[in-house]
């Protein structure tokens, strides 16, 4: 299953681990979206920065 991850809040001022997690997801700019396959590592990264991103399921 694929998901679209969109950065909706800025990682500026957040902990370095959260900033690196956002970058590891492939997000660089605000309102940028990436499509990822929902695997266990990706799901873990999403849960760590859930307050910064918006996730929607793709069919």
Written as H for each helix and E for each strand, in order along the chain, the element string is: EHEHE
Mean pLDDT: 97
Amino- and carboxy-terminal Cα gap: 7 Å
Structural class computed from helices and strand pairing? alpha+beta
Give the fraction of residues assigned to helices.
25-40%
Q: Main beta sheet: strand number and arrangement?
A: 3 strands, antiparallel
Radius of gyration (CA) equals 10 Å
Shape: globular
SS strand fraction: 25-35%
Number of helices: 2
Biggest sheet, strands in spatial order?
2-1-3
Number of strands: 3
Given as residue ranges, the uncertain stretches (5+ residues, pLDDT < 50) are: none
Overview of this structure, please?
This protein has 59 residues and is α+β, with helices and mostly antiparallel strands. Helices cover 31% and strands 29% of the residues. The chain has a three-stranded antiparallel β-sheet with strand order 2-1-3, with no helix packed on it.
What keyword list fits this structure?
59 residues; alpha+beta; three-stranded antiparallel sheet; 3 strands; globular
Describe this structure in a few short sentences.
The protein is of the alpha+beta class and 59 residues long.
How are the SSEs placed, and which strands pair?
Blueprint lengths: L1 E6 L8 H9 L8 E5 L2 H9 L4 E6 L1
Antiparallel strand pairs: 1-2, 1-3
């Amino acid at each position: 299953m694929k998901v679209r991850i969109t950065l909706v809040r800025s990682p500026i001022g957040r902990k370095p681990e959260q900033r690196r997690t956002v970058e590891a997801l492939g997000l660089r700019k605000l309102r940028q979206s990436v499509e990822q396959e929902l695997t266990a590592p990706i799901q873990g990264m999403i849960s760590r920065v859930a307050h910064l991103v918006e996730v929607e399921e793709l069919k």
